[in-house]
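Let's do one together. I've listed all components of the complex below, 1107 residues spread over two lines.
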Amino acid sequence: MNHEFLKIQGRIFDIQKYSIHDGPGIRTIVFLKGCPLRCRWCCNPESQRREPEEMTLRGKRETVGRDVTAEEVLEEVMKDRHYFRRSGGGMTLSGGEALAQPEFASALLQGARYQGVNTAMESTGFAPFSVINELILPFLDLFLMDIKHISSEKHKAFTGAPNELILENARRIAELGQRLVIRVPVVPGFNDTPEEIGDIARFAGGLPGVEQMHLLPYHRLGTDKYAGLGREYTLPEILPPSQEQMELLAEQARRAGSIAVRIGG
Amino acid sequence: MSRFYDGEIAKSPRIDRLIQHLYAKMPEIEADRGEIITRSYQETEGLPMITRRALAFEKICRELPIIIRPEELIVGSNTQAPRGCQVFPEYSYEWLEQEFDTVATRSADPFYISEETKARLRAVYPYWKGKTTSELASAYMAPETRLAMEHNIFTPGNYFYNGIGHFTVKYDEVLAIGFRGIGEKAREALAGCHVANQDYAKRSAFLQAVITCCNAAEEYAHRYAVLALEQARQEQDPQRKLELLKIAENCAQVPGKPARSFYEACQSFWFVQMLLQTESSGHSISPGRFDQYMFPYYDADIKAGRITREQAQELMDCIWVKLNDLNKCRDAASAEGFAGYSLFQNLIAGGQDAEGRDVTNDLSFMCLEAALHVLLPAPSLSVRVWNGTPEEFLIKAARVTRTGIGLPAYYNDEVIIPSMMSRGISLEDARTYNIIGCVEPQKGGKTDGWHDAAFFNMCRPLELVFTNGQEDGVQVGLPTGELNELTTFEQFFDAYKAQMEYFIGLLVNADNAIDQAHAQRCPLPFQSCMIDDCIARGKALQEGGAVYNFTGPQGFGIANMTDSLNVVRTLVYEQKKLTLQELKQALDDNFGKGLSREWKQRLTTRIARNLQDAGRPVGEQEIAAIYKTVAQRQVPLQQQEKYDQLLQWIEELPKYGNDLPQVDAFAREVAYTYTKPVNRHKNPRGGQYQAGLYPVSANVPLGAQTGATPDGRLANTPIADGVGPAAGRDVHGPTAAANSVARLDHLAASNGTLFNQKFHPTALSGEEGLAKFASYIRGYFDQKGMHMQFNVVSRETLLDAQAHPEKYKSLVVRVAGYSALFTTLSKSLQDDIISRTTHAEV
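Okay, and this is what the predicted structure of the assembly comes out as:
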């Protein structure tokens, strides 16, 4: 490829291969650094700040965040092209919030599309609609959109940002006919009641083009990273929801939203 | 809609009961065959060897005790005890005599042996002194070869102590024309011989031997017919009585005469399979393309309504159980290298016909279903994969993989077929290949492959580069130069290549000596009558009777050598962070991590020898003193810090297995240091050598004999398994590891490569998980990978099984080119399996 846009630089903190839960087929996930939200349960706290930072994990100190060109990322991503082709898989952008680096995200998606692989983005849609519409959607096959809560107040209390923009964007994206999956992190004490999940499902079910809703059970796997970054984990000691509770919520969501629901990505 | 039936088939309750009976007791060694063959040899002294072998086989068929186990539908057992084994003193016997009192308690593959059996065997063993293949092979070997073997550079132990095995016969021909038909072919060939022909003596003796064996096989089956009739007469249960009468009818018909039904075909197959493993102690006698040669019988019966799918499945399940009834006792060292009581009877499903059409059929699916029903290590089940492989077949195979039994192994037609053709095999024959033993491709019924001919430890020649070819004061390898003479990395790498070439030459010498010994002392007329072109050529397989003749020794340690040579190049020659001498010291000191007892003893021997060479007398007291000094020696603190720094540098270097094109390109070069020299050699049967790249399970015991390596691998720890990355060093997931491995030249290793992968069960969950897993295999194969196999079991389960073996008696795992019951493996091999990198753990 020899396109100018591939020279665009961005900041990532990880590339993960053989992901089988974030879009169709076998996928490579590119994690972009920086996020406008501060979800208290976030399992990748090292993804939140835009600036590179030091993190100590299992006694090892490492720098999180590096600047790369879209071309460099795509070269790494395309190493798995054989698996993409065989499985209908491809690249998924994640974060952080990929939309916080819109030109870079756009270049990655465009480059992947050019190579003929499936593109997906996991995002909460927290950006001006015009950015999403002009830079992202033309090159995106599947939007994995995070909707965490219907109440803006509660949303703000737990993520640091209100949700009006998110819900509005979801509506407008859906109306354009974009393939969409709504993903909900199920966090005890935040949104794990049947009513709250039901509200999200009703909202999702009312959008055209929503194929599925994924309920992602909260897990504590990221907590040691907070210590590693010298930050405080502000969620109280909560236990991940049980399988039975997840089944119950999924059933509730199916009823409320008349929508296909599954547990896990 | 699928063209095939890919759903579940009900399992007969009989199957679990057969399995219970089979595993009720520890396997046992029996003396009958040892006694019978001794008496036969005593009676036939002075006759041609091929005649003696045929008469011995005949006597065994007539006199070996027979048994029908409870509820069996397919009969034929060469031992009274389930999973028992006979002995084969014509190959070797000393090791067993020496291990009589430890064989029941050893860590790898223990066997019970009664005092009575020991006494009976002790009585016959003196006869064999000087008459075995192993003794003749030793006599044929060059002194430097024996020296290299003493120093564990390579080990041909398998064929040194045992029969060769590693072949597939023409099961289809036995099913179609029976041993009477084959005997008739030999008779015709004999009639075509003229007494005045130059080779009349050998040819006629061979053909006569074939006729004797064909009659003997039929006679053996008839004994079962009689036994079944007798038991039927006494049987109270009317259902079982009918079964026994049917068994009697089957055994009266096959394998002497052609099979007339699927059931008879199954019974005929089984007699062939078990008699082959009564004639010789070779393992990896592989059923091959069972789904192909059995299909016409199945298809005809189904179409005529003579059998239901469930009945056919039950018969196949019975065969699957029976394949676990056969057993073999190896010497303690070999048992470590082939741990898990495995006979490596490889059975393959799917693939193409001679014209390149996909011939996956309903029986291919039923082979997978049988594996699901029995969940046992045998047969070593394989599937052939190519672009034409039906997706539902691959999904069904993935379903079996998901159970965690490590079966099936997946093979790539698109690599294996051209690879075989590059060795002179015809297109048609290559397309109809099957797998032998662990991973070795062969054209069944036409080949004497001698796969698995030796283990070659690629780490040992590197150790000898550091010592100018010397070890323990002896010149074992080539003098490739003192370390200060190796001033560039190219010189260093050349020195390694020179050591490799030298030892590969010695390996060839060892294998050819053994080859010669088998041809002279153990030609095998029964197996030869079922492999082309023995009858037409009038020669046994061991004398070059096969159409295709190979010798395939396998090298292992590519990951360790790639990473090690990379460390030498980068740290010593490019960055000049330390000298070769300093690196050597670090290796000798095991990076300051302490030395094992064996290593201390070895160091003591080395020092004592040096003293002796210098003219100083060394007695027992001096040796004890040296050992004490060695044992107490501690690396000084300052030195230890340096070693820790060195290990840190090593860790930071890029490693094989992470999809790094430059590192992987070098791995390809390193693999060539083994494959290219091997591929140039010839064997005494008129065939060529072909390299394999896999260790079976020998990476663990042979790793225990290997010092620290520059990649940071500590002394006496396992070497990387197969062609995969060293354990724990591949940190970018299964696709990155597979991409690295695919960068090796698998076509140059036509004797097979082995790539183990370990997945967490969650990675295969749901239908979607299966589909993605299948795509993963196809993606690796698109890049010309040859073989792939999987352990799908969580680390927690394995650790728990180690701690509570009683709870996991039936846990089957993948070891190398085969599966085994986890709890029967030695602790160190269990640890090796646990330490392999697990992918997609969530």
